[in-house]
Amino acid sequence: MSDSSNKTIIATFETREAADLAVEHLVQQVGVDRADIFVQPVGQDNSSGAHVSGGDAPAVNEDGRGDARLSGEIEVSADISANKTAALHRAFGDLGALRVTAK
């Protein structure tokens, strides 16, 4: 991002469900363009989060799932104009982010 009035806000979540909810909230409530939001695992390993939740949870008659790797936290970042920084920090905090940073 070449414009110095823009910021990247990064939030870390324990579950993919929480990360997905954060993306939905940023688009619908804060007005961030979906193309400016990025989701990825925090570490090198592919991961669906640090804890089972939502679609990762086993069904009632299911002992567990082998397809939902729990290798670490999920990072959601958004490239935004500087005037939305406070709103994003608030939104990420309200949605249970473990950490929120800016660069």
Task: Describe it.
This protein is an alpha+beta fold and about 100 residues long. It has one domain. Helices cover about 25% and strands about 25% of the residues. The protein contains two helices and four strands; from the N terminus they run E-H-E-E-H-E. A four-stranded antiparallel beta sheet has the order 2-3-1-4, with helices on one face. The longest helix has 15 residues. The radius of gyration is 15 Å and the shape is globular.
Task: Supply the key terms.
103 residues, alpha+beta, four-stranded antiparallel sheet, 2 helices, 4 strands, globular
Average per-residue pLDDT, rounded, comes to: 79
Helix content: 10-25%
For the record, give the distance between the C-alpha atoms at the N and C termini, rounded to a whole number.
11 Å
- Unreliable stretches: none
The value of Rg in angstroms is: 15 Å
How many DSSP E strands?
4
**Helix count, per DSSP?**
2
Task: Give, in order, the helices and strands.
Answer: EHEEHE
What percentage of the residues does DSSP assign to strands (E)? 15-25%
Q: What is the chains' assembly state? A: single chain
- Find the structural class using helix and strand composition: alpha+beta
Counted up, domains total: 1
Shape from CA axes?
Answer: globular
Strand order of the largest sheet: 2-3-1-4
Described by strand count, sense and barrel closure, the largest sheet is:
4 strands, antiparallel
